[in-house]
Here is the input.
Amino acid sequence: MPSPAHGAHTGRKGGGQLSAPRLRIDTPERAGLDAGELRQLAGEVRALTTGPDPWAAGVVLVAGRGPVIAVEEAAGWAVRYAAYDEKTDAGTELAAGARVPVTVHTPFDLASLTKLFTAVAAVQQLERGTLGVDARVGAYLPEFRGVREHGVTVRQLLTHTSGLRPELPLYDCPDDAARLAMLRAEAPSSEPGEYLYSDLNLILLQYVLERVSGRSLDVLVRDGITRPLGMNATAFGPCPGAAATEDQRLPWGKADRGMLRGVVHDENAWALGGVAGHAGLFSTARDLAVFCRTLLAGGSYGPARILGPDFVELLLTPPGLGFALDQPRFMGALAGGGAAGHTGFTGTSLVLDPVTGTFLVLLANTVHPRRRPADNTPRAAAATRLRRAVRGT
Here is the structure.
């Protein structure tokens, strides 16, 4: 494999560039945002946890512009239910004294937001010269014959154009050897080059990254992203203080695991030991705001630099690498000018908009006490409210 590129500064200080200002909590006016719009945004977020059928048991919002966090709101419960009652199709509520309220410091199971960190870790390897974006996956993982024989590339994994089906039942395998054999044999189900969102893309990318770097994904994320950025609340589980997710049982779940809190919700990530390219990270909204701010600032935060500006551009410009771009379904009015972000099955989402310099993190446990069809309406509404708050536009 190629040696690291001379002068790469991933995860290091300085790099010959000016420091990017760190986030601070300040007034909407200091961020160039309308205070009235943000008050309405905070109120709308609080309402998501109320009523007989709330959108989520608990929600945390962090939003701002530039280096300013202009609104931070927590509402509802990190743990509200003891179980799901399938006879009544409702949660069995804990006594008031046994519930755990959400705070702005509550970690959440990020679900597919994990993919963004895997994508950044991959682009860090591009910057180092240890990985080629258009290289064939089979060149790094020759034993993965399914993708090798179809010439699947690293770029296709990152853009969900490999043709791999959405998932495999790794959770049904008896052991790690059987799971690995299934992944190695898996071939595209459609022609590579066509878009088909698949968790398998990021799972295979994890194997590529671990092969080229000689380090596990959790170490790559910690040493290359979270530690240099001071994201001390972001890590793969277990995370005992996290918001609860699902009373995971058959037939609605894919495994019988009971009420989950602090262990990964995704069944395949659980089967893979909790560290996976597509799911497994836990984090807080404020930590994710740092992640957003870093990318909006061209890869730097304070004295740390995790990527150079050209590589951030590679991540965030069409077709994008790992990030969804300009998706009105969850980005609302922020979409259309180059906004980037992602959603997670457990109820998580983030959006960053290079045009306005705004960012929005919305963490929720919508699957507590049981998974339900995704409803992006509150996410889109929050993003639209933030866009309306931008002054001078």
Remarks:
- Residues 144 and 172 are 20 Å apart (CA to CA).
- Residues 1-16 have pLDDT under 50 and may be disordered.
- The chain has 13 helices and 18 strands.
- The domain at 12-389 is CATH 3.40.710.10 (Beta-lactamase).
